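S., here's the first fold you wanted:
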Amino acid sequence: MASLLLASTARTAAASSSRRLVASSSSALESLPLLLSALPPLSNILPPLPSSSRSISSRNPNFSKGLTKVQRKRGQMKKRLNLEKHALLERVREETKPDPVLGYRPGNTREVGTNNEDLWENCELKKIIISNQDVWGLREDSRGNLQPVESELTKGTEEERAVAASQGGPLRLNFNLSDEDRKLLFQDLPDVNTKDRLTVSMAFSDAGSGTHAGSMVADEINQHLEGIERQEGHSVDKLSRMLDLRNASSKGIDVYNKRRIVEQFGQGIHTGTVETQVAIMTYRLHRLHELLSTPTFRKDEASRRSMAILTHKRAKLLKYLKKNDTDRYVSLLSRVGINRRAVEGEIVVPGRPKLITL
C-alpha cells in the first residue's frame, strides 16, 4: 500500500514539473521577438566582407543572365586573336632588333633607312672616317695577295684635292699634321730656303770678286735662282712622300680619323663632350667588329671583352645625355648612325659567331 502511495506521489510531481517547463519555454518563445528587436544590426557588429568573397553576380551583371554559346565562342576567338597579335609583334621585334655594337641590324628589310646598313652609310660619322683600304688603295684577298682598290675616298674629296693643289703636299698628311702645317712646310719653308740660299750665294760671289755689289749680272742670278728652285722642288717632293698618309700604319690612320672626328663633333678643341666621346666609341666599335668578324681574329676573346665593355660605356653616356637633353640625344643618334633600340633597355652583346661550313 505504501509503495502505491509513493508511485502516485512521484507521478504527480513529475507532471507538475513538466507543466512548469512547458510554461517557461512558451513564455521564452513569446519573448524571443522582443529580444531580437532589441539587438543592434549585424552590419554594425561584423566587419564588411572582402572583395574576393563578394558574389560573382555583383561583379558581372551579365553573369546572372548567363552567356550564350555564341558569346562564349566570340570571347574565345577574341582572346586567341589577341594572343596571336602579341606573338606576331614579339616575333617582329626580335627579327628587327638592332645589333648593340653596330647600332643597326644588318640585312634588315623591314626598317630600311632606320635600322639597316643605310642608317650607317648615310650618317655624318661614316662620311668623315676613312678605312685602311681607302688610304692605301690596296686590299688583301683570301690568299693573302694585295689587290688594287679604287674608290672615291682613295682619290679624295674635292676639298682635299683643292687644298693639295693650292698649298702643295700630299692628298692627306700623316703624323697628325694640320692644314696650317701644310702651308708652312710646302709654301713658306721653300720660299724662305730659296731666298736664304740666293742671298748666301750672292754674298760669297761678292766676297770672292772683291766688290760690294753688282758682281753677279741678272742672267747669272736668274740661272742660279732657277737651280735653287729646282733643288727645293725635289726636296718638297721627297718631303711630300715622307709625310703622305699612305705611308702610315694602321695606328697612324686611326689617329687621323680621330682627329677628324674631334674637328667635326667637338669643333676641333672639345674632346670631352658627349658627342665627341660617343662618336669616337662608335668608330672604335666598328673597327673591333670588323676585326673580330674575320676568321683570323675570331677567337680573340680579349678584344671581344673590350668591345663589350666599350658598348656599355657608350650606352651609359647616351643614357646620361637623354636624361639631360633629349634633343641633343636624338640628334646625336642620327649623326653617328645608331638606332635608339640598340642603346636603350637591356643590352646583350653577342658572343663568338659560328663559322658556316659549306
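And the second, which I think is the more interesting of the pair:
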Amino acid sequence: MQEENMPPPIHGILLTFGLCSFRPEQKKARRKRDNSVKAMTAEEAAAMDAEIARNKSCRRSLQTYRKAWEDIPEYSLWLTSHPSKYKAVCMLCNRMLTADSTTIGLHSLSKRHMEAEKNYYRAKMRENKRVAAAERSDDAQEDAESIAASLQGMGFSDDDAPLAEGGTGEGPESKQQFIMYRDEHHYTADGGGSISGGVGGDYSAGIYVPVQQESHGKSDSSRDMTTKVFVTKRAPHWKATAIVNGHVTKLDMNDYKGRYVVLFFYAHNFSKVDASEINRLSDRIADFRTVHTEIVACSTDSHLSHLTWAKKSRGEGGVSGVKIPLIADPTHIIARDYGVYLPEKGHCLRAHFVIDRRGVLRHVAINDPLIGRGTDELLRIVKALQFSDQVEEPLVADWTPDP
C-alpha cells in the first residue's frame, strides 16, 4: 500500500477496533449525495430507504416525512416530499434534507436558505409590479379609445375638445376631465324646444369634472404607516429605554431569545382604557410566564412619563406596581417599524404582536384606539401557537387547551 493512501493513525486505530465503519472520503461522498436533489425512480427510492434503515447511526432517531409539515406557515412555501420517505426537499435551495423536524427547522434559519427566500420574494414583487403596470397601461388605452369613440359618435372632432393623454384637458385645467352628458330633455331658456346654440343637438354642453390624480410621491402619512412586519417572517428588532419594576433600564429584543414575547402597543399614558389594559396584563402575567411568555408594553411616551405613571396609584388612573416592562418610543421608530403609528394623532394604534422563540412573528392584531383588548384571547392565541409548534399540526377554529 502506498503511503499516500494509508489512513491517519487515529482513523486506522478506529478501523482496527471496529469503531468506525467508513473512511473520511466515503463520508464526504455520502454527505454530498444526501444534499443533492435529482430524479429518482421508485426502485432507487426503495433502495435508499433500505440503506437508511440499515444504518445504525440513524436508527435511534429515524423519522419519516410528514405531509402535515407542509401546512406549517414557515415551511409551506418551499418544503415538499422526496421519493424516499426518510427525506424532504427544499424547493428554494434545491436541497435534500433529512426528514426530521429539527433538521428542517435549522435549515429554515440557515443563511443560504434565508437568502434564497429573500430572492424569491424580490422576484415575485418585481413580477407583480410588472403585471400591475401592464394592466394599468391596458386600462388607460381602453379608456382613451372609448372616450375618442364617444366624441366621434357625438359629431365632435379632436379640435372641439382638446384632451391630453389619458382624457385630461391641457393647460391650467389639466387636472380636470372633459365629460359630455346626454340631455334627455331639450329645453330652451323659455322652457321649450332644444337649446339655442347647443352643441351636438341631443347633447348638452360639456362640463369639466374634477378627477383625482394618482400621486407619484408618498405622503407623510403613508410613509408613517409603511410596515416592515409580515407574519411568518422575522420581527423587526427593537432596543429602547424602559421602566422595569419601577427602575429605568435598557431593554433589547435579544434579551428575550428562547421565549415567546408579546409586544403590546397602547395609545398613551394616563388614559382610562390604557390603564385598564396594562393593569389587567400585569395581574395575569403569571399565567403568561407559566407558558414561557413575556409581555412588553410600548407607547410613544417618554420613559419619564412612564415612570410617573408607574408611581401613580390605580385609583388615580395609574399603574402602580406594574409587573411588565414599559418601553418608551418617543422617536416613533418602533411604532413605525411595526406599522402602528398614527402621525395625525401622535400616538399608536392598539396592537399586539406575538413573537416566538426564534424571533419570528406569528400573530398580529390591531384595534381601534377606542376599544380595549381581551387578555383571555391573547393567552389562548399564545398557547395555541406553542401547542401547534409542539405537535407540528394545524389547529381547528376555537381551539382551547385542555384544563
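Why I say that: The chain has a mean pLDDT of 75. The chain has twelve helices and 16 strands.

Talk tomorrow,
H.
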